[in-house]
Design a protein that fits this description.
The complex is a heterotrimer. By secondary structure, chain A is mainly alpha-helical. Chain A has 15 helices and no strands. Chain A folds into two domains: 44 residues, no CATH class; 197 residues, MetI-like fold (Orthogonal Bundle). Chain A is 66% helix and 0% strand. Chain A starts with 16 loop residues before the first helix and ends in a 7-residue tail after the last helix. By secondary structure, chain B is an all-alpha fold. Chain B folds into two domains: 46 residues, no CATH class; 226 residues, MetI-like fold (Orthogonal Bundle), CATH 1.10.3720. Chain B has 14 helices and no strands. In chain B, α11 runs antiparallel to α14. The radius of gyration of chain B is 26 Å and the shape is flat. Chain B starts with a helix and ends in a 14-residue tail after the last helix. In chain B, 46% of the residues are buried. By secondary structure, chain C is an alpha/beta fold. In chain C, the strands form six sheets. Chain C has a five-stranded mixed β-sheet. Classes of the chains: A mainly alpha, B mainly alpha, C alpha/beta. Chains A and B meet through α2, α5, α6, α7 and α9 of A and α1, α2, α5, α6 and α7 of B.
């Protein structure tokens, strides 16, 4: 690790204004390299950001966004005064935390496992297959899940035949759904997520393993002392970034799997902020309210990431976002 | 990692700079256990896809009566006929458009993002933290759909063009940050020695960083490609009067049109009986048609997931 | 340093935003081209050709052409909302209470006030829509024209013919007994269910009733939407008293009745038809039973159309008196954008469509002889020919349509008759401004969706009702009712 980009001393002294111009010129190539991304972000992300004010306005179309009247925090009232605000926030955040840790953990295990496969042919085969669920849209998965979980579906057929119990009405019982959603989520995303970790494992200099072998390390030590520590920057990055989206749910999954527009019984456990807002605004589609909720989700996400990042920085600077 | 272990690695390097050996193998029992586990997972992932494929080649009435088949029971090409049949020109057009968008987009995006990732990875870049925040901020905060629409249609006038399907997707902060993490693992000594030799940043980027970051680039390159291939939102929103469309959008619209036939408010006349209209089977055929090419492309990316490339240019 | 950069960038963004605030105005020479955002549900691939013909006629008649932007139906809501909110200068768009909500748009200033222009520029529309167009008034002004069709809504029975015949049910009799015999609707429903139950298989779907049945039975008219608290009742002493319809005796009666049906197995297998696809399947298989159908509405000629679609005949007979409500009338309309630069021309365009039947037919059914044929005064669509818009109610007056083969020849007369003879909601013509209770409306709707479907199909026990009402109140039900009352009183005072 001592040989990485992380510890090289700065190129020039940090003080003085003459230094500023020198630094600019010396690193001008880097500036140019960063330019495409910066330009596109300005054009497509930063310029439209004037729209953030919609959250605080009542949009009058004939006046345009900037001349429409201000209404302070009134748009936020919708969400915060709602009796369900706490429940959907809890669902969103709770499920996301669950997802973050279980999907990353399982993807990591899978990547480590694939790392042990000797023959490349078999490995490629496995890897391709694990990726298949990614290609199924939530709509399709929703239908297949229904085929399995409905009153006459596979699961109930199995249960009644083996245990002789009454069929379970999954779609009428909220309690089962956190587990169902978790399992489906892992199944669908594990192939995709494991690719990142696998790529990270590939980037590890084999020399380290060599040295470990010489030192007489066990397989377990090899994994815990080399593989994992060396991809820990990636693990850390993925988790820190995931915190930014902890208040945003995957709308497609939460909408199509429990078939939320059909029967409201499952709402207590599967209604998240995004589906709740979508549903509520279906009659009175109010862009100000939608914008306010969005702002809230983004703001909390930002605070969380900065906090987690600061903590990470305290532990190990090179693993942090910045 | 003990310092003398590192020394021992260096000592072990052959004169050509390649490192011999690698990880140690697993015991026989562990290997069996490993493969059993991997196989079980593979089955769990494979079966649903088989169901999708089989359903797509089944007749609609069979699916309605007997549920989803794992192996085809009542073979029928109805769903594919519906997809390709009358609108054969449209699906080929959609394919062509999507290939163009994905090709150009992936190239531009990977190029831009990897360059930015390299810049971010350089710890001594004095605008590093600012740039990181600048990029990362957009992951969370977005002006919103309407302001973006205003900017794209009224200022840039990009509606109905090819570029509206490409440009908004070029920068993905998440990918940049992952690539940065990959690149941070590359030894700075290499860069330093190249700089001493008088190489420009571009040269360093092209000849040192890119080859060494291959697994990361392949991974992100794949993600970028998938993103473009599956994109549909920009095409839906910004294409009104021209012919540009993406495959996914065309498929979604096809599905909606079929569903509209069931809608009581509409009065579509059709020769098919309602039960026979491919709907379930059509949905599955859509998945096959959209995912197929990607699965074929997959191994191409896997080629780059190779273990620890040489860094033997550093001696001693 | 970092914060300074962020601020600098945001400032730059703001400035750019200000500069963009004024949209681009297209000023061109030559004939006016009107932009019409519309939708379709069927095949419109021959659109360019068809519109070429339409524009010939329009050019000759009003000196303008239409640039019709065809958006797939399911995408319409989202896309038109973006277009409107971005201040884009289009001309004509579809609006209603369920797609591109009319009242919300008006309160946002999205449509032009047409009141003074209609009599001169659109005389046909103005005269034929008299009496009904008041339903589109907001603050006394009119912001859209109606697409005429069946306005009056009523509940109907829908029974599979095979089983109904086997059970010895003659639906017309029940319809007569319900409408003229003065018998209780639920008694009749029960009778029908029991008879059907004797002949139908175990896996048949006996659907539950819905709140709409209770409303129609008791002449209760929800003002905002069925799912949102706030309704008035007709034929009572104080017709403009607003109340929460879910607390009414009518709803309780329905709950009791539902409980009874569930006990006797006369509501069953609803979980198999909760999914629209499965429901269609059940309909096509002829095993879907709804003695009184909560959704849909009775319309003359509907039975024949259903038979065409499902390839299975369902008897459809009117079971409740027809009611004219605001939402029933504004179910399909066309508005002119407030950002439009061709308001007068747009109205002339609408007038052209409404008064020239050939334009209407081109628009919806394409070219005669190629996309559709007319035999003996009846319309037959040529399937797969490349043009069949599929939404004849979305533009123009449906009374302009040549009756489809299978419908009675006087179907439109029957429809007009139904419209004219329907009883009128006490709140007809009242337009609600939701600004003060937007949050509550969304939240109560959410509560409704969580409880009511379950209560209506037996998957929730009757005892959940208490929880439902409490939650509704927590979500602000009474606040909505109070706000509605306040506005209705003000409106009544001005009449």
């Amino acid at each position: 690790m001592s040989e990485s980009l992380n510890e090289y001393p700065p190129l020039v002294a940090k003080r003085g204004r003459g230094m500023l111009r020198r630094r600019f010129r010396m690193q001008s190539e880097l500036h140019i390299m960063a330019l495409p991304v910066v330009l596109i972000l300005i054009l497509y992300n930063y310029i439209p950001m004037f729209g953030l004010v919609i959250a605080f306005k009542r949009l009058q179309v004939n006046l345009g966004i900037l001349r429409s009247p201000w209404v302070g925090f009134q748009n936020f009232r919708f969400f915060f005064s709602s009796p369900d605000a706490w429940r959907v926030t809890r669902n969103t955040v709770g499920m996301n935390f669950l997802f973050i840790f279980t999907t990353n953990f399982s993807a990591l295990i899978l990547a480590l496992a694939m790392n042990e496969v000797r023959r490349r042919g078999i490995l490629k085969f496995y890897q391709t297959i694990y990726f298949l669920p990614y290609f199924l849209s939530w709509v399709v998965v929703g239908f297949m899940l229904y085929g399995m979980l409905n009153r006459f579906g596979l699961v109930n057929a199995f249960l009644t035949r083996t245990f002789g119990i009454e069929p379970i009405r999954f779609y009428d019982t909220p309690g089962y759904w956190p587990v169902i959603l978790l399992l489906v989520r892992i199944w669908k995303g594990i192939g995709y997520a494991s690719v990142v970790y696998y790529a990270g494992l590939m980037a590890i200099d084999p020399g380290f393993y060599e040295a470990a072998r010489i030192d007489g390390a066990t397989k377990f030590q090899e994994i815990t002392k080399i593989s994992i520590p060396l991809i820990s920057p990636i693990i850390a990055m993925l988790i820190i970034l995931a915190f930014g989206h902890v208040f945003r749910g995957d709308f497609g999954m939460f909408w199509h799997l429990p078939r939320l527009d059909r029967n409201g019984i499952l709402k207590p456990t599967v209604d998240i902020i995004d589906t709740y807002v979508y549903n509520s605004l279906r009659i009175i589609g109010d862009i100000g309210i939608a914008s306010a909720v969005n702002f809230y989700q983004a703001f909390v996400g930002l605070v969380l990431v900065l906090t987690v990042n600061r903590i990470t920085r305290g532990i190990s600077a090179e693993h942090a976002l910045y | 990692m003990s310092a003398d272990a590192v020394t021992r690695i260096k000592a072990k390097r052959t004169s050509s700079g390649r490192v011999a050996g690698g990880k140690q193998g697993l015991s026989r029992g562990s290997t069996i256990g490993l493969h059993v586990g991997l196989t079980i997972l593979a089955i769990l992932c494979l079966i649903p896809m088989l169901v999708v494929i089989s359903t797509s080649f089944s007749s609609e009435s069979d699916v309605k009566e007997n549920g989803y088949p794992i192996i085809v029971r009542d073979f029928s090409l109805d769903a594919y006929e519906q997809l390709i049949g009358r609108s054969s020109r449209t699906i080929i057009d959609a394919y062509v458009d999507t290939v163009m968008v994905s090709g150009v987009g992936t190239f531009l995006s990977l190029f831009a993002c990897s360059m930015a990732a390299y810049v971010l990875a350089r710890r001594n870049f004095f605008l590093r933290t600012h740039l990181t925040f600048f990029i990362f901020f957009t992951m969370l905060f977005n002006g919103g759909l309407v302001p973006t629409y205003i900017v794209i249609t009224q200022i840039y006038s990009l509606q109905d063009t090819f570029w509206v399907l490409v440009l908004p997707l070029v920068v993905v902060p998440w990918y940049i940050l992952i690539l940065r993490t990959f690149m941070q693992g590359i030894s700075y000594e290499l860069i330093e020695s190249a700089k001493i030799d008088g190489a420009s940043e571009f040269r360093i980027f092209g000849t040192i960083i890119l080859p060494l970051a291959k697994p990361g680039l392949a991974c992100i390159g794949l993600f970028i490609l998938l993103r473009y291939w599956n994109s549909w939102f920009e095409a839906m929103l910004y294409i009104n009067r021209s012919d540009w469309q993406t495959l996914q959008l065309m498929l979604i619209r096809m599905q909606q049109r079929v569903e509209a036939m069931f809608d009581e408010n509409s009065l579509i006349q059709t020769n098919l009986r309602i039960v026979d209209i491919p709907s379930e089977t059509l949905r599955m055929a859509m998945v096959v048609v959209a995912a197929g090419p990607m699965l074929i492309v997959f191994p191409f990316f896997q080629k780059y997931f190779v273990r620890g490339l040489t860094i033997g240019s550093v001696k001693g | 340093m970092r914060s300074r950069m962020v601020i600098a960038v945001l400032l730059f963004a703001m400035v750019a935003g200000v500069l963009s605030a004024g949209g681009e105005g297209e000023s061109g020479d030559g004939p006016v081209e009107l932009v019409h955002y519309g939708f379709s549900a069927g095949d419109v691939s021959d659109g360019p050709e068809v519109f070429g013909l339409i524009n010939e006629k329009l050019g000759a008649r009003i000196g303008a052409t239409v640039d019709y932007v065809d958006i797939p139906g399911p995408e319409y809501e989202q896309r038109i909302q973006v277009v409107i909110n971005s201040g884009e200068a289009y001309d004509v768009a579809f609006t209603s209470h369920w797609r591109n909500n009319y009242h919300v748009n008006v309160s946002r200033g999205a449509f032009t006030d047409l009141t003074d222009l209609l009599p001169d520029l659109a005389p046909t529309i103005w005269s034929t829509q008299q009496g009904y167009i008041d339903a589109a008034r907001v603050g006394g002004r009119i912001y859209a024209v109606l697409n005429e069709q069946i306005f009056a809504r009523s509940r109907m029975t829908r029974l599979p013919y095979e089983w109904a015949d086997a059970a010895g049910i003659v639906p017309e009799e029940y319809s007569d007994r319900a409408l003229f015999g003065g018998e209780d609707l639920y008694d009749l429903d029960l009778e029908m269910r029991e008879l059907m139950n004797e002949v139908m298989p175990e896996d048949a779907v006996f659907d539950g009733l819905g709140p709409e049945v209770a409303w129609d039975k008791n002449f209760i008219v929800p003002i905002i939407a069925s799912q949102v608290p706030g309704a008035v009742q007709g034929d009572v002493a104080n017709e403009l008293r607003v109340f929460n319809q879910y607390k009414s005796d009518a709803f309780l009666e329905l709950l009791d009745y539902t409980e009874l049906l569930v006990e006797r197995g006369l509501i069953r297998n609803t979980d198999l038809a909760r999914d629209p696809e499965a429901q269609r399947q059940a309909l096509a298989a002829g095993i879907h039973v709804t003695p009184v159908e909560p959704g849909g509405t009775f319309k003359p000629g509907g039975e024949e159309q259903g038979a065409e679609r499902w390839q299975y005949l369902y008897y459809e007979n009117q079971m409740t008196p027809a009611t004219l409500t605001t939402t029933g009338i504004i179910a399909t309309m066309l508005g002119v954008s407030s950002a439009s630069e061709n308001v007068e021309k747009s109205l002339e365009y609408l007038e052209a469509v409404f008064s020239d039947d050939s334009i209407y037919m081109l628009y919806h059914y394409g070219i005669e002889g190629r996309h559709h044929t007319v035999d003996d005064g009846f319309l037959t669509v040529v399937a797969g020919s490349g043009y069949n818009r599929g939404v004849p109610w979305a533009m123009g007056s449906q009374f302009q349509q040549i009756p489809v083969a299978g419908q009675p020849a006087d179907v439109w007369d029957q429809t007009r008759e139904l419209n004219a003879s329907a009883r009128q909601s006490p709140a007809l013509g009242f337009a609600f401004d939701p600004a003060n209770v937007t949050a509550e409306i969304g939240q109560t709707r959410s509560v409704h969706d969580e409880f009511v479907p379950g209560l209506m199909d037996g998957s929730r026990p009757r005892s959940d009702y208490q929880e439902f009402i409490e939650k509704m109140d927590d979500a602000g039900a009474e606040r909505i009712v109070a706000e509605l009352q306040r506005q209705i009183d003000a409106w009544a005072a001005t009449r």
